[in-house]
Design a protein that fits this description.
The chain is built from 19 helices and 16 strands. It has about 525 residues and is of the alpha/beta class. The chain has two domains: about 240 residues, Rossmann fold; about 210 residues, Glycogen Phosphorylase B (Rossmann fold). The longest helix has 21 residues. Bound molecules: GDP-alpha-D-glucose (GDG). GO terms for molecular function: alpha,alpha-trehalose-phosphate synthase (UDP-forming) activity.
């Protein structure tokens, strides 16, 4: 059986119980075959570290080898905060206004991907299967191929893939999308994401669809399909039976015995639609006075990417909104909003979800949103709460029986929350039963198996037979000219970059459908 090699920005010890869905899914797969999990160590070296940047640390966790690489400050800043979270994350979530298109950042992003490729290559065996995760690592396969890597490589994008008009706002879009063709299989969260990819390939990249999810462009064939990620339902339900979860449930039920609890659990990210959610809640209290002293919103906003301005801004905006709502509607013995800027222990989350009459999952844009699925899995089937879900979350493609809302429409969302609070028991049960069925059928284990069996079915023979040195000479993966000025990654030279390859990329960086 082939060994699985998982590559992601961060690496988690699969044996640790606190790990989230991705860690569970990957840990599961890696434990079966034995495997390698490779990525950034989480350490930024400052020149005085014990190991130099680029050093590979290896630890063994049962049958799984964890191999991680430290990054130096400049590389980390441009790769992680700069390009991944300052350009790709906002653009892929439709927030062009928040993207920083400083040209130097793309070079750092590429440099780190090259470094990771160089460090990974010597660790690979001939029949390994590689699974690369998320937007931090789009060019990794291209860099690996340029070094001679012939193994099957799959890529899963956890965030949405935007339509071509938005993608084309990224100055390096042609390079990024071309890099994707070095993968054998790309998995996206939704059918809509796949449609966006198809349009990009046909309208921007001069490529074509070959049927059955296959695409051809830049002389390469690859497969792109939707694989909606799920949660570890069994693990989550086991957590729900645990002491911490039960305690949380009892405490909340007692504390809010006379009230109706609404719940939001999100990373404090601008994509999650938190200010709009707060405004919808204020609208509910304004329009429906019977909800005052009754409906209480608990909003968990767990800290994330705090060094970035956009994240400091969203925090300030949220704090000010919560203060205003509590000031306007609160009473001595009732606060309408309880906002907590902390990360809750994972084992208390199912109990909190179960105690809430309404789960508010209203992102402005989201790849999938696992909280929606966790909320469903946590409910008491005999007396379930109601899921209010944004139509712009990937989960909306599967969870039809949730009450779908447009989170930008504050009045409309408030009306739907009111509907949720008044939904009769038989309707709540009916909706929940169908939702739970879907969450269980397409759980994280289903997702992992579906992706890996599709990857094994790809036909990489032509890729294996291909002379990649020619690709390299032709500038495979060579980005826009401005990136040539950057220093090479840690003792490595950038491959030569012929002028015609650059001309090709420049000619493609045109928005054709607007
Ligand atoms: C990306 C994509 C896609 C949240 N607060 C706390 C906490 N959480 C947990 C939730 C859930 C996870 O974090 C969040 O998952 P989401 O899917 O909602 O969102 P992202 O973090 O943005 O994830 C997303 C996902 O990747 C998977 O592909 O669905 O679209 O953006 O599990 O429960 N966990 C703890 N304390 C908290 O305060 N312990």
């Amino acid at each position: 059986m082939s060994r699985l090699v998982v590559i992601s920005n961060r690496v988690a010890d699969p044996a640790k119980a606190a790990a989230g869905g991705l860690a569970v899914a990957m840990g599961d797969a890696l434990r079966q075959t034995g495997g390698l999990w490779f990525g950034w160590s989480g350490t930024v070296t400052d020149g005085h570290a014990a190991a130099p940047a680029g050093h590979v640390h290896r630890t063994q966790a049962g049958k799984v080898t964890l191999a991680t690489v430290d990054l130096d400050r400049a590389d980390h800043d441009s790769y992680y905060a700069g390009y991944s979270n300052g350009v790709l994350w906002p653009v892929f979530h439709g927030r062009l206004d928040l993207a920083n298109f400083d040209t130097g950042l793309a070079a750092g992003y590429r440099r780190v991907n090259q470094l990771l490729a160089r460090r990974l290559l010597p660790l690979l065996a001939e029949d390994d299967i590689l699974w690369v995760h998320d937007y931090h690592l789009i060019p990794l396969a291209a860099e690996l191929r340029a070094l001679g890597c012939r193994q099957r490589i799959g890529f899963f994008l956890h965030i949405p893939l935007p339509p071509p008009t938005l993608l084309a706002a990224i100055p390096e879009h042609a390079w990024l999308m071309r890099c994707l063709f070095a993968y054998d299989l790309m998995g996206l969260q939704t059918r809509q994401d796949v449609q966006h990819f198809e349009r990009y390939v046909c309208e921007e990249a001069g490529g074509q669809t070959l049927g059955d999810g296959a695409f051809r462009a830049h002389g390469q064939r690859m497969v792109c399909r939707d694989f909606p990620i799920g949660i570890d339902v069994d693990g989550f339900m086991a957590l729900a039976q645990g002491g911490a979860s039960r305690d949380m449930y009892e405490r909340m039920k007692h504390e809010y015995a006379q009230r109706r609890l609404l719940l939001g659990i999100d990373r404090l990210d601008y994509s999650k639609g938190l200010p709009q959610r707060l405004r919808a809640f204020r609208e509910l209290l304004a329009r429906h006075p019977e909800q005052r002293r009754r409906a209480t919103l608990i909003q968990i906003g767990s800290p994330t990417r705090e060094g970035l301005d956009a994240y400091a801004d969203i925090r300030r905006e949220l704090e000010s909104l919560c203060g205003a709502i509590n000031g306007d509607y609160g009473e001595l013995d009732w606060m309408p909003v309880r906002y907590i800027h902390q990360t809750l222990p994972r084992d208390s989350i199912p109990g909190l979800c179960r105690a809430a009459a309404v789960g508010l999952v209203t992102p402005l844009r989201d790849g999938m949103n696992l909280v929606a699925k966790e909320y469903v899995a946590a409910q008491d089937p005999a007396d379930p709460g109601v899921l209010v879900l944004s139509r712009f979350a990937g989960a909306a493609e599967q969870l039809h029986e949730a009450l779908l809302v447009n989170p930008y429409d504050v009045h409309g969302t408030a009306a739907v929350v009111q509907q949720a609070l008044h939904m009769p028991l038989h309707e709540r049960r009916q909706r929940h039963q169908r939702l739970l069925q879907r969450v269980c059928e397409q759980d994280v284990h289903w997702w992992r198996k579906a992706f890996l069996s599709a990857l094994k079915e790809t036909r990489p023979q032509e890729r294996r037979d291909r002379d990649w040195s020619k690709e390299r000479e032709a500038g495979f993966g060579i980005p826009v000219p401005s990136m040539r000025q950057e220093r090479p990654p840690l003792g490595l030279e950038l491959p030569a970059c012929p002028a015609d390859a650059l001309a090709l990329d420049a000619s493609r960086s045109v928005v054709s459908d607007r």
